[in-house]
């Protein structure tokens, strides 16, 4: 498709498409199990991160979209109802398991140096592998600490995995789909055999890779709203990336997606942008019906996890300063960007004091040209107060003066 033939989407509309695609434009009437499940399906996954200055990130990602909800309902959807499952630091819809099962089956055969090393290490430690499988079969689910180190050759690394041999074996077996996380106890993962974690019908499902890749790429684009080829590549699973160009071309040919030009005040944004044809048809309606809302985002939120995309669409450079020495931080430890309508307008540096049950805002930074007028102050305070109640506490007021 030539540049002259491509439909034009304004940058403002592109932002609104992205916000709407992520379910951040309005709060559903109910935050029940179905709403939680639909939200994870809509945004593709929940990324897990142990940082808990406020709350674990995956809980905040759902709160940003649903408002206050029952965390026990989420846990039940994962560990009891199996509508969701945990795999390698993400929570996915179980309905998407065929997409990830293909990657699991080929996990140790990927053409990377790390995979070759892992494959060699597993082959050199059959006793450790058998011990892990046998213990799980007999006594699972079990925490990592329940396994003996029966390795012949240790796992060597410069990081935290060095000589943590049972843990590394569990991680690799999880990558292959042989074992999965079956629950959590006091923050620790409990492992079990995959066939005891998820329904057998889900585990046995296979699909042709061509249609599977096409549907997954289209769903990735639906979750993004509008995106470049590289942004789609960042969302799809590993095995799809090699043939992504062919997959996108086939989707264009089939009339499921279309190339578009995203035009800002300074001209077209760089890159090859795509949109689902269904979303292109409703793009003008997005502007006519736009309302939006004010909420806060985890720094790992799906909307902003791609920092290059975030800066291109929203003009904000999101920086994670968790690992930056305190004296060198500009924004704060666990900074949550503020989404207001279709714009990222500021950053909040919050901390939840669990002992006192108080959410404190240590700093408020506004983007250039943004004022904390009465309406904005009211909406931001309401969002922070709702977050505090979700955490089981109260908000410390007044808010600090903007910086």
Describe what you observe in this structure.
The protein has 403 residues and is α+β, with helices and mostly antiparallel strands. A hairpin with a 2-residue loop joins strand 9 and strand 10 (267-268). Strands 1, 8, 9, 10 and 11 form a five-stranded mixed beta sheet that branches. A five-stranded mixed beta sheet has the order 12-13-14-15-16, with helices on one face. Among the domains are: 98-198, Arc Repressor Mutant, subunit A, CATH 1.10.10; 294-395, no CATH class. It has helices at residues 11-21, 33-43, 57-66, 71-79, 97-105, 113-124, 126-139, 165-175, 194-197, 200-204, 209-224, 229-235, 244-253, 277-281, 283-288, 307-314, 374-390; strands spanning 8-10, 46-47, 84-87, 90-93, 142-143, 179-185, 188-193, 227-228, 257-264, 267-268, 273-276, 294-296, 336-340, 343-353, 358-366, 394-395.
pLDDT averaged residue by residue: 95
Structural class: alpha+beta
Described by strand count, sense and barrel closure, the largest sheet is: 5 strands, mixed
* Rg for CA atoms: 23 Å
Helix content: 40-55%
N-end to C-end Cα span: 46 Å
Number of helices: 17
Regions with little confidence, pLDDT below 50 for 5+ residues: none
**Structural shape:** globular
- Portion in strands: 15-25%
Count of extended strands: 16
